[in-house]
Every structure is written in structure tokens, then in C-alpha cells.
Amino acid sequence: MIVVNELSKVYDDHLAVAGVTFQLQQGQVCGLVGPNGAGKTSTLRCIAGLIGSSDGEIRVNDLSVTLNSAAVKRQIAYVPDDPPLFDDLTVGDHLEFIGQIYDIPDARTKASYWLNRFDLAGKYDAGATTLSRGMRQKLAVCCAYLADPKILLLDEPLTGLDPPAIRTLLDSVHEMAENGKTVILSSHLLAMISEVCTHLLVMKSGQAVYFGPKSGLVGDGVGAESLEAAFFAATESSPLEMVAT
User: Which PANTHER family match (predicted)?
Assistant: First the structure.
């Protein structure tokens, strides 16, 4: 579903992403982790087609992101770490808007399901500017889920969420994968995302220092008992030592 080959992204004289290569299949959940400034958000934005890559190739469901931008975007939902909601719309307006632009059958029923699932039903008529940081995050996730994309790109989606909302989000990601969605989940909350990830992409200074199944980095016989321990081991090693075959 996602093929990234030698992706590079340069901003002026800064190399943010340097030759990153990986691929994900349908139903896989990839934890994208790395220190601040590692290139995680730039990688996600390039896959989503929101910014152009400087070099390399990205294909989504066998479509080139560069040559088929509109078709690719119809298959992707991207939730940034600080969702840019419409200040003059209510919670309900946001979901109605998504339902209309994606021409979603029975959109109100599906929107109601997600609002109830994320404990936002009571905020249906509330304006976006009245929402807390966590509520804004949950609304953005509800909008993404309502669009029913084949690929979900979630950039720090746990930021600002309380423990029940974190559990709801992680459970929903697992369900999405079981239903054939491909998910990339970026987060610094390593212990929390570890349970839902099938794969890991660890980045440092724009490079992929590890990509492969989670079992190749965390678990018996590989030297790391937790994702946190594996993260420190990977980011303290050279890229050639850590990239999975």
C-alpha cells in the first residue's frame, strides 16, 4: 500500500529526510519514532502529498504521489500534530462538511458513532474555538475516520488526550488495521503505541536507522525488552547497523 524509495527532503540548506526507504502492506501498523527533528513529520507530509519530495519516489496503492496527487489524496487521511480546524464551524459542522465533500453514504449515522466513541457527542454544537487541545485532536481523528481512507497517517495523535481517549484511539487503530487499513502512527509515547504496531520505522537526523517488524527490534533474543529500550539502542547506533533486511 505504501512504497517509499530513497525519499529525501531539503528545506533551503537543511536536509530533513535523507534517503529513507520502506514499504508497508495492507493491514500493517507502523510506529514512526525518533528524536525531535528526526524528519518524521516531513516524511508523513511527503507521503500525504502535502509537500513535494526533493528526491526519491513514493507510491500509494501503486499510484505515484507526484503524478497522481488527487487520486492519492482520496485514499489518505492525514491528522497533523496540531489539527487546523475551522474556527467558525461547530463540531457537527466539521463532520457534515467531511460527509459532503467525500460523498459518504449515511454520514450522520457514522459521524454519530465516532462522536460517541470518542466522547464528543455532547459537544456537537460547540464551536471549534471552545474545544480543549485533546478535544480538537479527537475531532480531527473522527473526521479522518469518517472519510474511511485506505491509509491513515497520524502524527502525534495522542498529544493532549486523557487516558480513556488514548485507549479508545489505540483500540480504533487496531480495528482499522484488522479491517485492512494501513496506518503510520508517529508518537513519542513509545510504551503506549508499542502494543498496536506491527512494524517500526526509527529515524534519526533524517535517516532510517531501523525499519522492519517490531519483533526484529523488541522481544526475546533481540536485546531489547521494550520499545523504549530499543529506541535508545537504535538511535545510538549507526544506520548501517540497524536497518532490517
Answer: ABC TRANSPORTER, ABC TRANSPORTER, ATP-BINDING PROTEIN
pLDDT > 60? residue 15: yes
- pLDDT on residue 232: 79
**Annotated domain spans of the chain:** 2-75+151-242, 85-148
Q: Is the dihedral of CA 215, 217, 218, 221 positive or negative?
A: positive
Please state the three-class secondary structure of the chain as a single string: CEEEEEEEEEECCEEEEEEEEEEECCCCEEEEECCCCCCHHHHHHHHHCCCCCCEEEEEECCEECCCCHHHHHCCEEEECCCCCCCCCCEHHHHHHHHHHHCCCCCHHHHHHHHHHHCCCHHHCCCEHHHCCHHHHHHHHHHHHHHCCCCEEEEECCCCCCCHHHHHHHHHHHHHHHHCCCEEEEECCCHHHHHCCCCEEEEEECCEEEEEEEHHHCCECCCCECCHHHHHHHHHCCCHHHHCCC
- Residue 155 near residue 184 (C-beta atoms within 8 A): no
Neighbours of 159 (CB within 10 A): 14
**pLDDT tens sequence across 200-211:** 999 999 999 999
For the 2-75+151-242 domain, the top CATH level (class) is alpha beta
pLDDT of residue 215: 81
- Average the pLDDT over each of 22-26, 112-116, 159-163, 231-235 and give the range with the smallest value: 231-235
Torsion of CA 12, 44, 38, 32, to 10 degrees: -170
